[in-house]
Every structure is written in structure tokens, then in C-alpha cells.
């Protein structure tokens, strides 16, 4: 793939039909990282075919684990792990490789990673991860861009996070699973993906209680054994498609949707006038007569997810009225705004707040994704717009959406992937 690969979208068609929601990237990544702690074979089902997952598999193999992949199933045998240095080139390709820190230090007493670089959606520091590991007794040394962490054995402690960070909660939960004694993580993040990770760890013999609440208590055990686990469905993918259905005036059924995790999103859809019906694990979204502007504030779960802020904003560009959107989780997550302006949206940004005045139409344009969810927002805007939109920067979108163009085509969208060589 090159930077010139693009989605070409002919907008204006309502999405209609039904699709099945696949497994959650943000659950699969920490669970795959956790397999390195396990002295046995882990069978993980429902793993999405995404670029970030491919990088995680490469990392596991580079560490010496046996990994076999058969469609959505990944089998990991980490008995033979021979290294605890995460290769810097792979680390640079995916921020989530930071998840290897907790598991590797817990099982082997050492780990070396390169410090993850900056990120377009904000600074994304890892101070909570490092402080928590220190509290568990790890010695941490930073030199020449590498972080080396060592500990003879980690010891349980009470750790209070300054902010309910998803990644820090997961990393510390994994480290504590093999520590001596009891660890309490206070002000823990409560995202469903954390609950899924705890379920996996417990299936392997860990003793984690309270995942999904703001205090998690982990009683360390001496070793973990192999287990089978199915990844929960992706609530961000489901939310993106639900917003796209409403934004195009469509009618879509999402099968296998994690409706219980989508409360904040479904209530915004209803508030704006979309019809939302839940029947078992099927979610119907219809918005055939337009929709009104609603305000939205992102917050840690169960608040409105920051990962759907950009798609939500794209939806609001054509709402009746004005929407005020506040981003409370990341400090710089409005990179999609300039691109939406190129398509005729009316948006002003002041620090963490965007004011979106609904316009009657967007017009197709050439736009570039600069991050994953911002990229999804541009695709959504392309589906809503008159004429042809080209969205570049597909490597961002492919990190988190599996064959997005095929998925949308199943719902009647006119979208193709153009590879740079094909385009005259
Ligand atoms: C995870 C998700 C990402 C989502 C985010 C927030 C994965 C793989 N990614 O990212 O899709 O957008 O949660 O829901 O699950 N922070 C610090 N110090 C730290 C850690 C975080 O200051 O050590 C700050 C961050 O800068 C940010 C906030 O805490 O402002 C939340 O970040 P965090 O929850 O850690 O996000 P990630 O785990 O990186």
C-alpha cells in the first residue's frame, strides 16, 4: 500500500441491509499480549484481520512464541519465549506494543521496549504505566530512547491512577496477575475491553475481581495455564456503522452488536431523532427523515467514546441546527476538522470544543486521513456528500476497520479502493 491509495466514494446513497460485527481490536491486542504470560496454549477466537493485529503477531513471533492463524482464530504457544526485548521497528509500528511491558516483566522479570513516539491525537504519555510498574517493585531505566524494566519479583500494591487510562489499567492488571500478594487499581478504567481481558486472564487461572468497576483487585498467582477465549464484538465499529446509517438516511441491522456497551451512542442517536431498536444482539438503526443537531461530550466509559467523536462530528455536519462537541479524553483530536471543512462543513474549534453548524449538503472532495477514527469520519462524510470523495491515508483506517469498503458495499455504498498503480 502507498500513501496514494484511496477510497473513492460516490455519496448520497442511504446504507441499507445487515452486517455482522467482528471482534474488537482494543480487546484483541491486550489479550494477544497477555498470552506471553501463559505457560500453555491459548486459543483466541474472533480476532479481527487488522494491521495492528498483524504487527502484534509479528512481535509475538519475534519474542519466540509459536503463533498459528486460521481465519479469526489465533493459537499462541508462549512456552518457548526466548527474548524479552520488543524489536524497535515493530514497536514503532504500533503504540499498543506497550502492552507487552506488563506481561513480560511479570513472567520473566525483565523487558526492554523503545519509548513510543508522539501521536497525532495528542501526546499520549506512558507515565501512568511506568509509575504503576515502579509501585509494583520494578526498576525502570530509560536510555537512548529505550525503556528497560527489571524486577526479581513484582509485589502487590495499591495504585491510584490520575486518570482512568485504558492502557495503564490493562498493563498493570496483567503485571499484577503474576505478582506476589494483592494489587488494587483505583480509579481504573471501566471499558468493556478491560472486562474482556480480565475474563481471559481468569480463564487462564488469574484472580482478577472488579474489572468494569473503578477498583480492580488482583490476587497474584504463580503461573497461568492455557485457555480458550472469544473476543467481544467491536463497539467502535458497530457505533461507526450505526452513525453512518443515520447519517445517510439509511436503515441498517447490525448483527452480533454489543448493544450493552453502546448506551451513550444509542442515546445520542435517539436524541437526534434516529429510530433505534434492539432485539437480542441485533441492533437496528433507521433515520429516514433527517435528524437534528445534538451536543456531545466524550468521557471514559460509560461516557461517549472518544473513538467515535470524529464519526459523530461527520454526522452532525448535516444535522438541523448546531452541535457543540467537547473532547475530554485527548487534547488534540480534531485533525479531521480541516478535511471536513474542505467538503463544505461549517465547524469552528476552540481548544477542546468544536461547534458544528449543520449545512444542507456536503460536497465531495479529496481529503486525507491523519489518524484512524478521523479517517472513518471522512469516509462517513464521503457517504453523505454529493459527488465523488477520495479519502487518502488508508493505512490509518486499515489499522482498525477490516476491509471497510467491502463492509460498506454490503450495505449498498458506492465505495472502491483505488491502488495508486491503477489510477492513470
Ligand atoms: C485506548 C484505546 C483507544 C482509545 C483510548 C481512550 C486501545 C488499544 N486503544 O488507548 O482506542 O481512544 O483508550 O478510550 O485500547 N494518559 C496519560 N498517561 C498515561 C496514559 C494515558 O496521561 O500513562 C492520558 C492520555 O494522554 C489520554 C488519556 O490518559 O489523554 C486516556 O488515554 P488512555 O485511556 O491511556 O488511552 P490508550 O490506552 O492509549
Main beta sheet strand tally, sense and closure: 4 strands, mixed
| CATH architectural grouping of the largest domain | Alpha-beta prism
The CATH C-level name of the largest domain is Alpha Beta
Q: Using DSSP, what is the number of strands?
A: 23
Q: Could you tell me the CATH topology label of the largest domain.
A: UDP-n-acetylglucosamine1-carboxyvinyl-transferase, Chain
Order of strands in the sheet with most strands: 21-22-1-23
- Segments where pLDDT lies below 50 for 5+ residues? none
Task: Determine the CATH superfamily of the largest domain.
Answer: Enolpyruvate transferase domain
Average pLDDT reading: 94
Bound small molecules, deduplicated? uridine-diphosphate-N-acetylglucosamine
Instruction: Enumerate how many helices there are, as a single number.
Output: 14
Taking all Cα atoms into account, the compactness measure Rg is 21 Å
Distance between the termini: 16 Å
Task: Please tell me the total number of domains.
Answer: 2
Percent helix = 25-40%
Proportion in β-strands: 15-25%
- Which secondary-structure class do the elements indicate? alpha+beta
Amino acid at each position: 500500500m502507498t500513501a496514494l491509495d484511496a477510497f473513492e466514494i460516490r455519496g448520497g446513497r442511504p446504507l441499507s441491509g445487515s452486517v455482522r460485527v467482528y471482534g474488537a481490536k482494543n480487546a484483541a491486542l491486550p489479550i494477544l499480549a497477555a498470552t506471553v504470560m501463559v505457560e500453555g496454549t491459548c486459543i483466541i477466537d474472533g480476532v479481527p484481520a487488522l494491521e495492528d493485529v498483524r504487527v502484534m503477531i509479528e512481535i509475538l513471533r519475534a519474542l519466540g512464541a509459536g503463533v498459528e492463524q486460521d481465519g479469526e482464530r489465533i493459537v499462541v504457544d508462549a512456552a518457548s519465549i526466548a527474548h524479552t526485548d520488543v524489536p524497535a521497528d515493530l514497536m514503532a509500528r504500533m503504540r499498543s506494543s506497550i502492552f507487552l511491558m506488563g506481561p513480560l516483566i511479570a513472567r520473566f522479570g525483565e523487558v526492554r521496549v523503545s519509548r513510543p513516539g508522539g501521536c497525532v491525537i495528542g501526546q499520549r504519555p506512558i507515565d501512568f504505566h511506568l509509575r504503576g510498574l515502579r509501585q509494583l517493585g520494578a526498576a525502570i531505566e530509560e536510555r537512548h530512547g529505550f525503556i528497560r524494566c527489571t524486577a526479581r519479583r513484582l509485589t502487590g500494591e495499591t495504585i491510584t491512577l490520575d486518570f482512568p487510562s485504558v492502557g495503564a489499567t490493562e498493563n498493570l492488571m496483567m503485571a499484577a496477575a503474576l505478582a506476589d500478594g494483592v494489587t488494587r487499581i483505583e480509579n481504573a478504567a471501566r471499558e468493556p475491553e478491560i472486562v474482556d481481558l480480565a475474563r481471559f486472564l481468569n480463564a487462564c487461572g488469574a484472580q482478577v475481581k472488579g474489572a468494569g468497576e473503578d477498583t480492580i483487585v488482583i490476587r497474584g498467582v504463580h503461573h497461568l495455564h492455557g485457555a480458550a477465549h472469544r473476543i467481544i464484538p467491536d463497539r467502535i465499529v458497530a457505533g461507526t456503522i450505526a452513525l453512518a446509517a443515520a447519517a445517510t438516511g439509511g436503515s441498517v441491522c447490525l448483527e452480533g452488536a454489543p448493544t450493552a456497551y453502546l448506551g451513550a451512542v444509542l442515546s445520542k442517536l435517539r436524541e437526534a431523532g434516529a429510530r433505534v431498536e434492539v432485539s437480542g444482539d441485533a441492533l437496528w438503526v433507521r433515520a429516514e427523515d433527517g435528524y437534528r443537531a445534538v451536543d456531545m461530550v466524550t468521557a471514559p466509559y460509560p461516557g461517549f467514546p472518544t473513538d467515535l467523536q470524529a464519526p459523530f462530528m461527520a454526522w452532525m455536519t448535516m444535522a438541523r441546527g448546531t452541535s457543540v462537541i467537547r473532547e475530554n479524553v485527548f487534547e488534540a483530536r480534531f485533525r479531521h476538522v480541516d478535511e471536513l471543512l474542505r467538503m463544505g462543513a461549517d465547524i469552528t474549534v476552540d481548544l477542546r470544543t468544536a461547534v458544528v453548524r449543520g449545512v444542507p449538503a456536503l460536497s465531495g472532495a479529496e481529503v486525507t486521513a491523519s489518524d484512524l477514527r478521523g479517517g472513518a469520519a471522512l469516509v462517513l462524510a464521503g457517504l453523505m456528500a454529493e459527488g465523488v470523495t477520495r479519502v487518502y491515508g488508508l493505512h490509518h483506517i486499515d489499522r482498525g476497520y477490516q476491509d471497510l469498503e467491502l463492509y460498506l458495499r454490503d450495505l449498498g455504498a458506492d465505495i472502491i479502493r483505488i491502488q495508486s498503480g491503477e489510477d492513470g
